[in-house]
Design a protein that fits this description.
The protein is of the alpha/beta class and 310 residues long. It is built from 14 helices and eight strands. The chain binds NADP nicotinamide-adenine-dinucleotide phosphate.
């Protein structure tokens, strides 16, 4: 690994975080039906009690509600919380000041003066990477962000972002990417390894593959909403993987499939940020910490996941 910059080192010391996309999102996650603000606050509190203090949100989640809820929860706790949020590159946000202006909006919703990590949510088809990075530099210079990162940037774009920031003597802190036992694109194409080389923390989103890796869904009992169609084929193929995960979990004193899935991400060198809708899910996910899969177990899981992903 490259020498880590002192500003971004804290991110490499975080083993796992908490995803807050579910907080307020009605479109994908049906917030307000089966779970409510009290439930996600309980997930937040349970995570803090288990030592998880890094929370990932975005201005996009729940159209600002996720940030507002997080801000409220932070006010109601004495414990320190590390906040990561994201800029969404809407097509009309094409000028230099757009990134810093959007962050001001996020800070107001969160009720804080700065965030620990500010990320560009997706690359923009219109705005150049250089201009987006200029926006992030402005956020750092104005003291509104402690570190800056990107999300959904492929290898090439990530290097462009890294270089643009390096020209300003700033380290690209992170790249947030889809990564789980059922999605290993960024491991296979070398992005994960390149992150490690360059001291960029790879943050893994959907580490439970949106609940599929917990084993609670099957072809006969599909997940609700849009996930049913998306995972219909996968659900017909994953039984061997789920069985192996359960057996490995048993060898570690009864770890659940979710805990094995998250531990696998950690063993690969990425930082998982599982989303939790309630205290029970958060508590269970926290049980992915404090132990490690063996190298042999990781290799066994790799082999079965390869067969499924073929
Ligand atoms: N940068 C990006 O573009 C991007 C994209 C997506 C997500 N993210 C971030 O990554 C975070 C995680 O991704 P994600 O939330 O989409 O997927 P995920 O973490 O793989 O799955 C979360 C879902 O799995 C289920 N679940 C969670 N813990 C469980 C447990 N212990 N047992 C059983 N089921 C459990 C819950 O849904 P059910 O109970 O309904 O099954 C929960 O909503 C998000 O919150 C967000 O912060 C970023």
């Amino acid at each position: 690994m490259s020498d880590l910059s002192s500003e971004t080192r804290f991110l490499h010391a975080i083993e796992m975080g908490l995803g807050a996309m579910q907080w307020g999102d009605r479109v994908i996650w049906q917030y307000g039906n089966s779970y409510h603000a009290e439930d996600v606050q309980a997930a937040f509190q349970s995570s803090l009690a288990d030592g998880i203090r890094f929370v990932d949100t975005a201005e996009l989640y729940g159209n600002g509600l996720s940030e507002r809820l997080l801000g409220r929860f932070i006010k109601e706790t004495e414990q320190p919380v590390l906040i990561a949020t994201k800029f969404f590159p809407w097509p009309w946000r094409f000028n230099k000041g757009a990134v810093a202006r959007a962050l001001k909006g996020s800070l107001a919703r969160l009720g804080v003066e700065s965030v620990d990590l500010y990320q560009i949510h997706w690359p923009s088809p219109i705005v150049s990477i250089d201009l987006l990075m200029e926006g992030l530099v402005k956020c750092l210079k104005e003291g509104m962000a402690r570190t800056v990162g990107v999300s959904n940037f492929n290898h090439e774009r990530m290097l462009a972002a890294y270089s643009a920031l390096a020209r300003n003597n700033i380290q690209l802190a992170s790249n947030q990417l889809h990564f789980s036992l059922l999605d290993r694109v960024y491991e296979k194409n070398g992005t994960l390894a390149r992150c490690r080389e360059l001291g960029i923390r790879m943050i893994a989103y959907c580490p439970l593959e949106r609940g599929i890796l917990s084993g609670k869904y099957s072809a006969e009992n599909p997940p609700p909403g849009r996930r049913a169609k998306k995972y219909a084929e996968t659900l017909t193929k994953i039984q061997p993987l789920l069985k192996e995960m359960t057996e490995i979990g048993q060898d570690h004193g009864g770890k659940s499939n979710s805990q094995v899935a998250l531990n696998w991400v950690i063993c690969k060198g990425a930082l998982p940020i599982p989303g939790a809708k309630n205290a029970e899910q958060a508590r269970q996910n926290a049980g992915a910490l404090g132990w490690r899969l063996t190298e042999t177990e990781v290799a066994e899981l790799d082999e079965i996941s390869d067969q499924i992903l073929q």
